[in-house]
Amino acid sequence: MYSAFGRRLVRILMLEPCGNSAERQHSHPYRTNRKIALRCAAIVWFTGCSFSATAVHSQSVNKIIALPTDLNGVWHLEYIRYKKVRVQYKIHCAHPDGMISEWEVIAAIPPDLPQQKIHSSHIFIYDRDVLDGVSHTVGDENQTIFDVVCPPRLVGQDDQLEATVQHEITYSMRKLVPGNAITHVKNLSASEQRFCLKETAEINFRAPEFQQFLTRNDLRRHLDESTLTFGRRVHHFVRAYMRYNREARFEDTSIVKDSKTRIGHCGNYSRMVVGIMRASDIPARLLFGHWLIVGKAQVGGQPHTEAEFFAPGIGWVLSDTSVSVPTGGWKPGWNIEEGFASEETGFIAFNLQGPLLLPTHDFGIQKQYHLQGIYTPAVGGDWQKMKIESTLQITELP
Questions:
Q1: In this predicted model, what pLDDT tens digit does every residue of 180-225 receive, in sequence order?
Q2: Run of H or E residues at 7
Q3: DSSP of 216-234, one letter per residue?
């Protein structure tokens, strides 16, 4: 069910948006094939695995501005302070057999970005602050995570876990405006360049099939195009080319498959942008997180994925190609410009560029494509009997 604002906007656009509360609340267990009676893995994934290309933003602060066709001139990004918020992601797990010997809790610590400043991050297990000594980095992107191993709490016959990850963040809205920036935009370091230009199994832009796809659709940067102009052309292409389906496969697939099926959700849309930009030697990255929706706690939160590319002298430019996408994809009269460069509402990135390879204590390396909440390997018991509740609540601070 859409909000009153959403229904009004839909009537204005005469479009049916996709993405709904069921999608945002949907999550999947991460299944393991270890079937040992007294020591089997209950791997529960609270990361909001279904991505959401939310149809309507209920807290818009920027109007979509009409940009000129030629963006080869001088532009810069303005950052306007939006909100300081407290983000709380809570989980409660219960297992009825009393067989759990330990829980492991892994949660992402959001990175500092131009649009988000992280003031503090804490993890609470059974209401106890266990921040000290449990954070470390993983992967070449230096993603910082909490990683805690804790005993279960016995309540009646249930082995239970209660965990909360809490962050205080100041978020600023980006807006693309003409003219020179007041402050100098630093170029990327050599390591940042490598990270944002690398080919992966999922973003396999050097594959011959994808190179042919780029040629057929004229998706290489022209000599007379600025990074910004080319980025917008890619943004328009992906929004018009792809067909939205929230059930589309993301894990263990790639942009080569996306280019053939043309079907995906926000994760597929965004990695397509990243792949095309990297193929023209333009740094680009994925951002996994949640919409900044202030209010009551929401089951599973509001998970979403966006793309960014780096434009020299401008900085990281947003390309959210699945925002407000109509059911079935592009339709005449639809605003294809939306989601480019300027934001309408806040989005908190929990990590950059999945998948993360997490070194768990009991199960070795586990691949997590989008760690947007809490990941909990548990030793003992039967995962099919696990009772799980997870909520995300964002509260505005003074």
A1: 877 788 899 999 999 999 999 999 999 999 999 999 999 999 999 9
A2: helix 4-13
A3: HTT-S--TT--HHHHHHHH
Type of residue numbered 301? G
Q: What is the DSSP letter of 265?
A: -
Strand partners, 105: 148
- With tokens 């099919």, the residue in question is 384
Looking at residue 113, the DSSP 8-state letter turns out to be B
**pLDDT value, residue 6:** 40
The span from the CA of 38 to the CA of 380, in Å, is: 6
Structure tokens, 284? 């680009």
Give CA separation, 21 vs 18, 42, 53, 291, in Å: 10, 26, 11, 13
To the nearest 5 percent, what fractions of the chain are helix, strand and coil? 20, 35, 45
Give DSSP secondary structure letters for 144-173.
EEEEEEE--EEETTEEEEEEEEEEEEEEEE
For 398, residues 6+ apart whose C-beta sits below 8 A from its C-beta are: 84
Phi, psi of 176 (to 5 degrees): -85, 120
Report the distance separating Cα 10 and Cα 54, nearest Å: 13
Cα–Cα distance for residue pair 372/27, rounded to 1 Å: 11
Contact 27, 47 (CB under 8 A): yes
Q: Which helix (H) or strand (E) element contains residue 274?
A: helix 266-279
Assess contact for 46 and 35: CB atoms under 8 A.
no
User: Which pLDDT does position 305 carry in this prediction?
Assistant: 93
H/E segment holding residue 175: strand 158-178
Distances (CA, A) of 229 to 270, 307, 323, 324: 18, 16, 20, 22
- Give the count of beta carbons closer than 10 Å to the beta carbon of residue 379: 20
**The tokens of 347 are what?**
């989005």
- Radius of gyration (C-alpha) of the chain in whole angstroms: 21
Position 164 scores a pLDDT of 94
Can you tell me the distance from the alpha carbon of 153 to that of 129, in angstroms, rounded to the nearest whole number?
A: 16
User: Which residues in the chain come in under a pLDDT of 70?
Assistant: 1-70, 132-133, 141, 157, 326-334
Supply the pLDDT for residue 196.
95
